[in-house]
Specification:
CATH architecture: 3-Layer(aba) Sandwich
CATH superfamily: Flavodoxin domain
CATH class: Alpha Beta
Bound molecules: flavin mononucleotide
Distance between the termini: 29 Å
Shape: globular
CATH topology: Rossmann fold
Number of strands: 5
Largest sheet: 5 strands, parallel
Helix content: 40-55%
Structural class: alpha/beta
Strand order of the largest sheet: 2-1-3-4-5
Number of helices: 7
Order of helices and strands: EHEHHEHEHEHH
Radius of gyration: 16 Å
Length: 196
């Protein structure tokens, strides 16, 4: 079974993020190929990046204990999903900071995104894909976009994400593709010589 971390990408009080988190955990429970652990950035309580020497020059080690604990935790997983709130057409500061707070642990692993907002977080997700490539990750093509109608439906009309069949299908596609990449890259990481 693959170990996948679900990173909760926003931390503000009353965040919407908890809705997709709950729904993704429910989706993962119905599968036999994925163990999904929730990594809440509220609990990680990371400092804003404050290393005096970039981790890239120190073998990926961090001096701040909370960043060090975070990057070790990240290292336990075969792949990642992040919930993506879109703040001013970009990802949240806390999610970007969480990506900066590990280095080698992300390398050659897949990440998928579940966005929400007016256009389903699509603009923030596009930026995250570029960031993920720089971290030597494999960002998935497949994504879940909870756009205006379902976003407002859940927020203001007591609807649930399960009321939208196309979202359930997107969730399945995301898990299926994440599993494919996670399996493939796990083999590659153990079998192939690493190139810089
Ligand atoms: C600072 C800020 C900027 C926002 N900018 C956008 C935006 O660019 N696009 C969008 O679709 N929604 C935007 N929103 C609305 C968010 O989609 C909405 O508040 C959502 O619930 C945020 O996710 P969260 O509740 O998990 O923090 C913004 C919200 C905040 C607080």
């Amino acid at each position: 079974m693959l170990r996948i971390a679900l990173i909760v990408g926003s931390t503000r009080p009353n965040r919407f993020a908890d809705k997709p988190v709950e729904w993704l955990v429910e989706g993962a429970k119905a599968r036999t190929d994925v163990q999904l652990d929730v990594l809440d950035l509220r609990e990680a309580d990371l400092p804003f990046f404050e290393e005096s020497i970039p981790p890239s020059m120190l073998g990926g080690v961090y001096s701040h204990p909370k960043a060090e604990a975070w990057r070790r935790r990240i290292g336990e997983y075969d792949g990642y999903i992040a919930t993506v709130a879109e703040y001013n057409h970009g990802p949240t500061g806390v999610l970007k900071n969480a990506l900066d707070s590990a280095f080698l642990e992300w390398n050659r692993k897949p990440i998928g995104f579940v966005g929400y907002g007016g256009v389903g977080g699509a603009r923030a997700i596009e930026q995250l894909r570029g960031i993920a490539v720089e971290m030597q990750m494999a960002p998935l093509k497949h994504e879940v976009n909870i756009a205006r109608e379902p976003f407002m439906g859940v927020l203001t009309q007591s609807k649930t994400l399960n009321d939208y069949d196309y979202l359930i299908q997107s969730r399945t596609d995301l898990f299926d593709n994440l599993v494919w990449w996670a399996e493939a890259l796990k083999v590659a990481r153990t079998k192939l010589r690493l190139v810089q």
